Task: structure prediction
Amino acid sequence: MPEELERLGIDYAFQGEADDIAPGLFEEIANGLPGGTWGPAFFKGFQTFDSGFRKSWVGHDKFLTRTRFSKQTPTLEEIPEIRKPSMKSLVEVMRGCGIGCDFCEVTLRPLRYYPYEKIMKEVQVNARQGGFTNVWFHTDEVFAYQHGRNFEPNTDALTGLFKAIMSVRGVSQMNPTHGRISIPAAYPDLMRELSEIGRAGPSNWVGVQVGIETGSDRLAKLHMPNKALPLKIGPDGPWQDIVRRGVYVMNKYYWRPAFTVQVGQAGETPEDNWETVALINRLSNSVLDDGRAFEFTVTPMQNVPLGMMKSRAFRSGLLDESQLAVYYASYRHLAKVAARDAARDSSGSILSRYGTSALIAIGGRAMLEAVSAVCRRGGLDVEKAARYGLGGVGQAPTPKTTRVPEGDG
Ligand code: SF4
Result:
């Protein structure tokens, strides 16, 4: 959306990783592009991708990126360490991913794993200078850190990473930013161990964003066949079962996933979206062995790959009935979580806790009413969306049980 850059008075947006070339970039801009002592090292425009991940360079006055034949990313050694505390105590532990989901540019970046020493130095800066006790460590797929064959998790590397972070003086909490659901589903013992190292517990939940994207086996296999690795969708159960097992293990060891789901994926049908509605409703009505409700949030998103967003006008467009149903099911669950957890998780005196939790619950209900009104106007039967996947006439059958059986994974 280059017109936004214009409106905000921004001269150039740089696209890509800039750690190794930032000084040359500023020098060129200061000297008037193109030129500078580094020569015309930058392309005036942006890189974009077609549906087959083929890259092309598109000229544009508001963007700068690396030229076609130059090095595209910094090496590990060229990525400098932070000198001052970072926002929210965020430190990187790796770049790239490699799983290969077809809507994600991260997967195209070369994999670089930061050594423990580098990570610990940055955590120390945040803890000592910033006074942070919590560490957000950024990765687009934490369980891929130094992964093994077939994206099997590297237990030693992961436990070593968690131990290194928690060993920094002053740190009492840690959260990875992103991770896949299949690893908790398949490796409960690893999750127990990581939780112990991270001191997770009823008053110290580990939050992590998890892209489950869909409830449809067909779409999952089409767009993200490797996201379930080392499990396989089909032989190891439907995608929905893998997700349910993953949530069970995460919650059991006090990890709270923040899910994202997508609508508008290429080749999507209304049936695929209704499968996503069914998944959300089923998870929302599932409990652990001790009766605790599944803890998760879910955020619906419209599928707009970043590369495509830069190369065409972005229009939010109108959601069809099945897409509205995904939004409705997501917000319905969020309102339920707000009402359920607000009292438990708010702090202060009884009076302020009562006030805070009432406000959050009312806010959740108001949000759901607003979403319901939009959905009804769009022709959605919200009662159908609320029940879908939970059994009943003309409904997708409920899976065997909503209580996930004992015996992890
Ligand atoms: S697992 Fe996540 S980061 Fe990796 S390719 Fe898929 S969407 Fe991208």
